[in-house]
Design brief:
Length: about 550
């Protein structure tokens, strides 16, 4: 989707900045918005970014369909996947060895596995001591070859209730699935036995993607109908695929909502329901043999339909290496950066795209510093001096010793040339707003400003949170309205962890230092803050008692 340029649009943005002069005056940023195509926290609407989905089929509730592909070419798949469109490839599993496999087939073939039983504690009369259980990462795992939840019936022939929290909506899952983490919880020999039968689809059979898919998958099993997972976001920094091996599955999906620090919510299983943000924008059925593909930051809920013979449904979840949904990341970076699940990706996995992997570039709130960054990137990559960066120029730079760490050594030597090619194409596409696969000076400037603003916003917002200054945080977020498409309304209800944190006296230092905390994500912030806030509350109670 090309972004519109022109004097009128720039004038409109300048007027917006002028109208928000008070905000700009108190802002930490010193950037001339009139130099930009869009303000740095501007994001497209669903209708603007996903027009291909809005005019197609709709489900019984009026929800749109994803992009539907049948036997796509590599070029066709790459185009849609790089855009980050949710995709349904109707015949992804055609001809694969695992096509049509049921839960029982996997239990018979690989009885050594241990799987997680989602919502098992919601099952009446369940007792851990009655079963062969392993504790992995603090969670129970049950033997795939022998588990009988009720002590009488094999798991793949028995339905269990989903979470009681989901009983308020008949569209939510009603029975609990199982997940087998093949990629993380098997010995190398066992992995080879399971992964050895997996085959890549015809449109992604290059060695990099084949290897990634083969080593990244996990299996989901769904006994009976109505089986699935509550709406959640994955923590993956890359696109995800769910391939339906047996049975059909109903999906509802939702793009991460527009975010501020105060909108943060638990994006794990069902958290979006509790936060009141669940408003799915896609609804569809993935039939047996089909695969759903979606980018980071797209929440999803699943619910199976009954198989024709009553057998246990099965699906594979996996990732591929290239292309990554870089244009989606660029378009929605402001909200993705504040996601509790994928926010940490901005400072890590995605950090090289905006800077084109030029070393030594650090976020700044000053336009003059960002201009220096731009000149540094052009000097490093724009070898012909035309103020445009092409894929060949990017490829040459990536292969040189001047580029920042690209992790090419994780691949065999014979595959590194292909890695550099794919990486260069993704990096250029990140900035490319007019679909010519060339980065213009304006496109580079727009992307760099956005990235700097997003990163500094995180740094500054974390400071307010770390000193328990809710009013200061609210004022900071409001001060950024001149950089948004429109002013944002701050929520009155906060996630429980934030409510707990802000119950501490203002000025309390949650962490002695924010070193190592580069996001407002669960992994980097909330997982540590929960224990820390409780410690501080206990200290406060101790002082009061004294």
């Amino acid at each position: 989707m090309p972004i519109m340029h022109g004097r009128g649009r720039l004038a409109a943005f300048a007027a917006l900045a002028a109208a928000s002069g008070a905000d700009q005056q108190h802002s930490v940023f010193d950037i001339d918005l009139s130099t930009l195509t869009h303000p740095p926290l501007w994001e497209p609407t669903l209708e603007e970014y996903f027009p291909v989905q809005r005019g197609g089929e709709r489900d019984e509730n009026g929800l749109a369909s994803p992009v539907v592909l049948t036997s796509p070419s590599n070029e066709e798949f790459v185009h849609h996947a790089r855009r980050g469109y949710p995709i349904l490839v109707e015949d992804w599993g055609k001809g694969m060895q695992y096509a049509g496999w049921t839960g029982k087939n996997f239990a018979d073939a690989f009885p050594f596995g241990y799987m997680k039983a989602e919502y098992i504690t919601d099952m009446p009369n369940f007792k851990k001591k009655d079963h062969d259980v392993k504790i992995i990462d603090g969670e129970m795992r049950f033997n795939i070859g022998s588990f009988k939840p009720d002590k009488e019936t094999m798991w793949h022939n028995l339905t269990r209730p989903a979470s009681k929290r989901y009983s308020d909506d008949p569209q939510k899952p009603v029975t609990g699935p199982y997940v087998w983490h093949v990629k993380d919880e098997l010995t190398p020999k066992q992995k080879q036995m399971v992964q050895g039968r997996f085959e890549a689809p015809s449109f992604l059979q290059d060695p990099l993607n084949s290897a990634k898919m083969n080593t990244s998958f996990e299996l989901w099993f769904s006994p009976g109908d109505g089986c699935g997972a509550g709406a959640h976001n994955d923590g993956y920094c890359e696109s995800v695929v769910s391939l339906q091996l047996r049975g059909d599955k109903k999906w509802r999906k939702m793009l991460e909502p527009e975010m501020t620090f105060l909108h943060s919510y638990d994006e794990f299983d069902g958290g979006v329901y509790d936060a009141g943000y669940w408003k799915p924008d896609l609804g569809f059925i993935n039939r047996q043999g089909g695969a759903v593909v979606w980018p980071p930051g797209y929440l999803h809920e699943t619910k199976t339909l009954r198989t024709d013979d009553g057998s246990c449904g099965a699906a594979i979840t996996l990732q591929f290496s290239f292309p990554q949904p870089v244009q989606f990341l660029r378009a929605f970076l402001p909200r993705l950066s504040l996601s509790a699940e994928v926010g940490q990706c901005v400072g890590h996995s995605w950090s090289g795209y905006p800077t084109l992997y030029v070393a030594g570039i650090k976020p700044s709130p000053k336009g003059s510093d960002i201009e220096v960054q731009l000149q540094k990137i052009l000097k490093a990559l724009d070898t012909d001096g035309d103020e445009k960066i092409t894929v060949p120029e990017t490829l040459a730079f990536f292969k040189s010793p001047r580029a920042a760490k690209l992790d090419a050594k994780q691949f065999p030597k014979e595959h590194r040339e292909l890695f550099y090619k794919f990486k260069a194409e993704d990096a250029v596409a990140y900035h490319d707003m007019d679909n010519d696969m060339v980065v213009s000076r304006q496109e580079l400037w727009d992307s760099l400003v956005q990235w700097n603003v997003v990163r500094i916003r995180i740094q500054e917002g974390l400071k307010f949170v770390n000193k328990v200054d809710r009013k200061g945080l609210e004022a900071f977020e409001t001060s950024l309205d001149f950089m948004r498409r429109a002013p944002i309304a701050l929520p009155k209800k906060l996630r429980p962890e934030l409510t707990d944190l802000f119950s501490l006296p203002k000025g309390t230092k949650v962490f002695p230092s924010l070193k190592g905390v580069s996001s407002f994500s669960d992994t980097e912030f909330f997982s540590r803050a929960r224990d820390r806030v409780e410690q501080l509350k206990q200290r406060g109670r101790g002082r009061q008692e004294m």
